[in-house]
Prior knowledge:
The protein has a seven-stranded parallel beta sheet. Strands 2-1-3-4-5 form a five-stranded parallel beta sheet, covered by helices on one side. The chain has two domains: 2-98 and 297-313, 3-Layer(aba) Sandwich (Rossmann fold), CATH 3.40.50.720; 100-286, NAD(P)-binding Rossmann-like Domain (Rossmann fold), CATH 3.40.50.720. Helix 1 packs parallel to helix 11 (298-313) and helix 4 crosses helix 7. It is elongated, with a radius of gyration of 22 Å. It is α/β, with parallel strands linked by helices. The longest helix is centred in the N-terminal third of the chain and has 16 residues, at 100-115. It has helices spanning 13-22, 37-40, 59-64, 100-115, 118-125, 131-134, 154-162, 192-198, 218-221, 241-249, 298-313, and strands spanning 2-5, 28-31, 49-53, 70-72, 92-94, 146-150, 169-173, 185-187, 201-204, 229-232, 255-258, 284-286.
Amino acid sequence: MKVLFQYQGLMSEQYMQFFRSNLGNDIELIFSDQTNPDEIAQREDISEIEVFVGYTVSSALMKAATSLRHIQIPWTGFDRMDTSLIDTSKITVSNSHANSTAIAEHAVALMLAASKLLILRDGKMRQGDWSTRSENVDSFWVTGKTLGIVGYGAIGEKVANMLSGFGMRTIGVRRHPEDNPNAEYIVGTDRLDQVLSESDYLLVAVPLTDETRGMLGPNQLDLLKPECVIVNIARGPVIDEEALYTRLRDKKIGAAGIDVWYNYPSRGESTTMQNFPFEELDNIVMTPHSAFKIRDRVEEFAKDILKNIELCASGQSPINQVYLDLGY
């Protein structure tokens, strides 16, 4: 069986060696230096590829890869994948949950940093300014508060577990609700307003789909308590950008920790700004979509990919298959 890896940032020598040392000689691993699926489609052996580990496809690639039977997305989100090109009667598609622990840890860090005003207080102290100790600049309690999770999946559940030591009450929303011992209740999206109005902390962890784009708009954000802290590790456009900015600016929302954005640097560049000046606000903690950037992550992040390659090689059904029509 031939497995082709589309080039992506994790593809270090350590990453490649992990697969080589854990898979048998009957599996041929091909690590491409190409990101463009049209260029990958021109490979002489493309018709022999059975498993594609990648995050974007094209019509040329799907037409040329006549033996393809599984696409393995190397991380959780697949909003960059043109799913309309994939014949699901012949090809299965899975994502990876292996980075969920790293993202959950980052979400908790953002929540605590935002609620305890760490960035504001640190910045003042670096100038010798102790005013946030004596002035009426108070942080927010975490212990005993209500955590609302919009998108109660692998990441959301891990965040709930990590925060259980604070005695937080956890409630959640997911497309198909089901009972969970870590949550007081989980409801469907038709009861989103209820979760928003009860939350002291709100974790946004849904995939970006046509249904979730802008799901937290002005009307929804106005349901939040004025001291609510929002953490977004999903995708920026799930929350209306202007509505988020204005409510943080006007202190209608307590604080925010944001790792996912609306504008990203072009390839080869390292700077860009958003459409609104979030950087001027003192009640937001910002990171550059970097929750996954953690030491010693290669093997942990590769586990789900390895498992599915093994399952495909043995003729079994891959894990973590996604519903392309639903976007998750």
